[in-house]
Amino acid sequence: MVWKPHVTVAAVVEKQQRFLLVEEQVDIGLAFNQPAGHLEEGEDLTAAVKREVLEETAWQFDPEHVISIQLWRKNPDAPSFLRVCFAGQVYNHNPEQALDEGIIKTHWLTRDEVAAKSHALRSPLVLESIDDYLQGQFYPLSLLKSSLDLNYE
User: Fold this and answer.
1) Tell me: the pLDDT tens digits for 83-139?
2) 118 in the Ramachandran plot: left (φ > 0), alpha (ψ -120 to 50) or beta?
3) pTM listed for this prediction
4) For residues 121 and 96, what is the distance between their CA atoms, to the nearest angstrom?
5) What is the DSSP letter of 125?
6) Which residues contact 58 (CB under 8 A, 6 or more apart)?
7) What is the DSSP string of 18-67?
8) Pseudo-torsion of CA 103, 17, 94, 105, nearest 10°?
9) Is residue 73 within 8 Å of 50, Cβ to Cβ?
């Protein structure tokens, strides 16, 4: 059997020292997460994070930096996730847009409010990404290269 991690993207969005999180229904109950989701076939990483933020929050997202590339697994029997975390800005909110399946609502929380919910975070990557952002850990988007559908001979 070939091992393959799930490739996901996430967005850290900050406005006035508050971070955009989604409250979502997961298998074990309600959890808090950055707007995040799986890379879809034929999609590059920046397109994926723009789509996920829009679907989960009704905000358009402009990625400006890569914060980190994270490999995470909850335990040895759980799937592994390769997560590319972006920082950027949101604009053009559409409050009438239905949110993605499983998303209950969005929240703007301070770092301390997020830390106080540590028991309800989707993964430890949520707070880790915010802390990386606050420490100024930014990498250029040019770090990411996409070579989709190139006919190489």
Assistant:
1) 999 999 999 999 999 999 999 999 999 999 999 999 999 999 999 999 999 999 999
2) alpha
3) 0.93
4) 26
5) H
6) 93, 94, 95, 96, 97, 99, 106
7) EEEEEEEEETTEEEEE-SEEEPPTT--HHHHHHHHHHHHHS-EEEEEEEE
8) 20
9) no
**The tokens of 78 are what?**
């759980």
Count, in order, helices (H) and strands (E) of the chain. 3, 8
Question: What's the DSSP call for residue 6?
Answer: E
- Tell me the domains of the chain and their CATH numbers: 6-142 (3.90.79.10)
Residue 79 class from Cβ within 10 Å (0-12 exposed, 13-18 middle, 19+ buried)? exposed
Find, among 70, 63, 61, 121, the residue nearest to 93 by Cα: 61
Please enumerate, as own/partner, the contacts of 145-148 that have beta carbons within 8 Å and a separation of 24 or more.
Answer: 146/44, 146/45, 148/42, 148/44
For 33, the token pair is 């997460």
